[in-house]
Design goal:
The protein is an alpha/beta fold. The protein has helices at 4-7, 29-41, 86-92, 102-111, 122-128, 136-144, 164-175, 177-191, 194-207, 229-249, 253-256, 259-268, 273-277, 285-289, 291-302, 325-328, 330-349, 354-357, 360-368, 376-385, 390-404, and strands at 13-14, 25-26, 43-51, 64-70, 73-77, 96-99, 118-121, 146-147. Strands 2-5-4-3-6-7 form a 6-stranded mixed sheet, sandwiched between helices. Helix 4 links the parallel strand 6 and strand 7. The mean pLDDT is 94.
Length: 407
């Protein structure tokens, strides 16, 4: 019988420095061409990562790209002086790329000419494998026994020159990715989920970049505290003024004016610039200079004709909020309850998060408006049309068919 000490895993080994030393940042075309040639001569998958300046800069562009391949070493590329990395694309375009949470990095990589044909997403693989924590540091510690440095992922990567400790952090992230890929691939193979992962990775690439958000101003923190359409019109106008200014300055909108200030200004509804300057945040020197911009935006929203005011909720083609189903359609509420219970049991049996088993939005749509006739064939077709992968359809169509026929 093992003792508690024997059951306790050994402490993680801290990774403090890249195994080959910290490479210089690639900032010139000559250095970029040389590294691309090295990548072409390397073997196996390519680890890829990118660092952005979320919360500091407008948009989600890449400010550092990290790559590593067996036989090629690690490359730290500065895409500011090198905004076209097509020479790297030519070297590794048909190779499997290993990324962690690929959806976060693929859009900014595409902007600089990097688009993979095949990927292995270690974050998604960890979800499919049923790991309890799927952040890069947690998965590396769990499967490889190493601890990564923390604290720089949310840094302002537009800073120049980049501090050495940040570069070490960035280099170490790609140093572990291929080993992590191999460990996760072995677990997925053992669990019979290799094909699941392949389909999921292909779906990420097929989906492409996300479309622009509809009415992005509605995501303002605190918007639910605004009660009238007139207030929503004022908020939209103020949000648009802030967004335009942030875009011109290349600064994150929240650093120009916090969301809380937008909402408080709308709620206070100041009728003079002086009254606006009495509100918190607006008293600062920067916003005193911009008071005409903010007050003008509020005035434009206040003066909009009724016909141009936004509705309280965004129109959509989906079902109503679930908390209204019991009143609107009790039968649909019953169907959803049965479907959710079945999916939860199935997810537990296969040790996969229920949201990865099937999109919750797709389940709601199917249970609100079941296909006709309500059989396994039409349910499978509806799932396929909604973007479900074949492995998901195979696992869920019978239980969803049963749920669709409960009421």
């Amino acid at each position: 019988m093992s003792t508690p000490e024997e059951d306790t895993p050994p402490p993680a080994v801290p990774l403090l420095a890249p195994r080959d030393g910290l490479p210089p940042v690639i900032e010139t075309s000559t250095a970029l061409v040389d590294y691309a040639a090295a990548l072409r001569e390397g073997t196996g998958p390519v680890a890829v990562d990118a660092e952005r300046a979320s919360g500091y800069r407008y948009g989600q562009r890449a400010y550092l790209v990290q790559l590593r391949r067996n036989g090629s070493g690690t490359g730290l590329i500065d895409p500011v002086p090198l905004p076209d990395l097509s020479v790297v694309q030519d070297a590794i375009g048909d190779t499997e790329w290993v990324l962690h949470a690929a959806n976060q990095d693929l859009p900014c990589l595409a902007e600089i000419g990097l688009t993979p044909e095949r990927i292995f997403d270690t974050e998604l693989a960890a979800r499919l494998a049923g790991l309890p924590r799927v952040g890069l540091g947690a998965v590396v510690e769990s499967l490889l026994g190493y601890s990564l440095q923390k604290g720089h992922s949310a840094a302002d990567w537009s800073t120049r020159p980049l501090p050495e400790e940040w570069l070490v952090y960035a280099a170490l992230d790609v140093e572990v990715l291929v080993d992590l890929r191999d460990a996760l691939a072995a677990i997925l193979q053992e669990q019979g989920k290799t094909e699941w992962a392949r389909q999921e990775f292909e779906a990420i690439l097929a989906a492409g970049p996300p479309p622009p958000r509809s009415d992005p101003w509605r995501r303002t923190s605190g918007v639910h505290g605004l009660r009238s359409r007139r207030q929503l019109g004022m908020l939209r106008s103020l949000w648009q003024a802030r967004d335009e200014l942030a875009r011109r300055r290349d600064v994150a909108p929240g650093r120009v004016l916090p969301d809380a200030a937008l909402v408080s200004a709308v709620q206070a509804d100041p009728r003079t610039e002086g009254a606006l300057l009495e509100l918190p945040v607006f008293r600062g020197r920067a916003n005193r200079k911009l008071v005409g911009t903010w007050f003008g935006a509020l005035a434009r929203g206040r003066e909009l004709p009724e016909s141009e005011l936004p509705m309280h909720s965004r129109s959509g083609d989906g079902p109503p909020p679930v908390n209204r189903w019991a009143d609107r359609d009790p039968a649909a509420a019953t169907r959803l309850q049965v479907a959710r219970a079945g999916l939860a049991e199935l997810a537990e049996r296969h040790t996969v998060p229920v949201e990865n088993l099937l999109s919750p939005d797709l389940v709601r749509r199917l249970m609100w408006s079941p296909p006709q006739p309500r059989d396994a064939e039409t349910v499978a077709a509806a799932l396929r049309a909604g973007g479900a992968r074949e492995w998901q359809i195979d696992l869920t169509r019978e239980l969803l068919t049963d749920a669709a026929n409960r009421a």
